[in-house]
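I'll show an entry:

:::
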Amino acid sequence: MFDLGWTEIAVIVVVAVVVIGPKDLPGAVRGVAQQIAKIRRWAAEARGTLDEVVREAKLDEVRNQINEIRNFDLKGEMERAVDPTGDLKKTFEDDPLRDTAPPAWTPPPPPKTAADLPDAPAFVPPQTLAPLPPVAPAPPPPTAPSFLPPSTSAPAAFVPPPAVETPPPVAAPASVPSAETRS
């Protein structure tokens, strides 16, 4: 603590024997030792009290942090971060199918009399038209006779279909001589 060497201790002992005297020296040393022990005890108590206060302060901080974590409102924080004005939440809460305002356009009332009808409608729905008379089936086309002698001409009603020219078959290319046979 004080870093006293042997020579310093010897000087203190000589001064104490001279000042206090050899007869009262053991009682004085005992009293000094008791005072040092009291000071050490008081320092240890003070240190323990300070350590306890520090521990309690840290525990209080930890308790406060734990309570803050327990009471943390994640949903509220997210809502405040994403939608600070509340417009988005209001949009989702409103029913878009519930129509509170009158419609922007209303159809005109239907005409009541024949005089109110226009001269010619632009479009007549199919369900208002009268049914059409049935259409007679078309007669089948004439068939060609199976055989005509070469001296007879073809009947006027029969016109043979035009002849379709088929392209001539493509011949396979002639074999190409290999490099060995060319040289």
In short: Residues 87 and 93 are 10 Å apart (CA to CA). The helical segments are 6-20, 25-70, 74-82, 87-93, 179-182. The chain has a mean pLDDT of 76.
